[in-house]
């Protein structure tokens, strides 16, 4: 057996015994509150640090999974953009492109546009204010 595993198991055993004894002492009614407060003062910070150490791997896993999700979405967006550019280039060069491929690219593009909020300057009032020949009063 690995020495690190043996030492780790021994430390877990010691911590388990310590926590059980501490819980037993704090739960006992025959100890004065001053002694209970002294025990809490002595053991509170190390126990808090221990809980942070024990929770750190789970927090790290959560952070990594969120980062992986974000990066996979970015990679999928980049792949969709590349597919769109390839389709545009093929159509500009007047190459034969299957209709299903064109529809698939357009469908992805429409989904992407509907997921993103519209820019601030676009809107009915903005479009109406730009209408009309120059020199005429704008409709606000």
Short description:
It contains four helices and no strands. It is an all-alpha fold and 140 residues long.
Walk me through the structure:
This protein starts with a helix and ends in an 11-residue tail after the last helix. Helix content is 77%, strand content 0%. The longest helix has 60 residues. The chain is elongated. By secondary structure, it is an all-alpha fold. The mean pLDDT is 79. Helix 2 runs antiparallel to helix 3. It contains 4 helices and no strands.
Topology:
Elements: H1 3-27, H2 33-92, H3 99-115, H4 124-129
Helix pairs in contact: 2-3
Give keywords:
140 residues, single chain, elongated, mainly alpha
Distance between the termini: 80 Å
The helix content, as a percent range, equals over 70%
Mean pLDDT: 79
Q: List low-pLDDT spans.
A: none
Classify the beta-strand content into a percent band. under 5%
Instruction: Count helical runs.
Output: 4
* Principal-axis shape: elongated
* C-alpha-based Rg, rounded: 32 Å
H/E element string? HHHH
For the biggest sheet, the summary is: none
Count of extended strands: 0
Which structural class do the helices and strands define? Answer: mainly alpha
């Amino acid at each position: 057996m690995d020495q690190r595993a043996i030492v780790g198991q021994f430390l877990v055993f010691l911590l388990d015994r310590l926590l059980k004894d501490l819980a037993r002492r704090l739960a006992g009614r025959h100890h004065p509150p001053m002694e209970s407060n002294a025990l809490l003062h002595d053991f509170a910070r190390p126990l808090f640090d221990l809980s942070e150490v024990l929770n750190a791997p789970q927090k790290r896993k959560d952070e990594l999974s969120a980062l992986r999700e974000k990066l996979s979405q970015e990679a999928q967006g980049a792949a969709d953009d590349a597919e769109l550019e390839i389709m545009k280039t093929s159509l500009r060069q007047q190459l034969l492109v299957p209709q299903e491929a064109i529809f698939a690219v357009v469908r992805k593009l429409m989904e992407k546009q509907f997921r993103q909020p519209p820019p601030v300057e676009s809107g009915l009032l903005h479009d109406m204010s730009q209408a009309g020949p120059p020199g005429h009063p704008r409709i606000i």
